[in-house]
# Entry
Amino acid sequence: MPRALAYAHQLVPREARGAVEQSWRERRNKLASRGCHYWIFQSPTDDTEFLEFIEAKDAATLAGACEDAGLGPSDPIYLEVELP
# Structure
């Protein structure tokens, strides 16, 4: 089965950053316990704009882990393309 990736875009007001970072740490721990990798990227030009990336060994693992971590089923899941 191909690896799976999901992402979510967030705008985080500066005054909410501490609380959001705590929620990201909690989400990272939940996802790690389900065998997923989790990354946060920040825009270099807008310090309120973030992307979350979640990766798993397959789509089923990713879907279950994302649901457990509070990421809804509306977040798209992408499958890795194997290049010949």
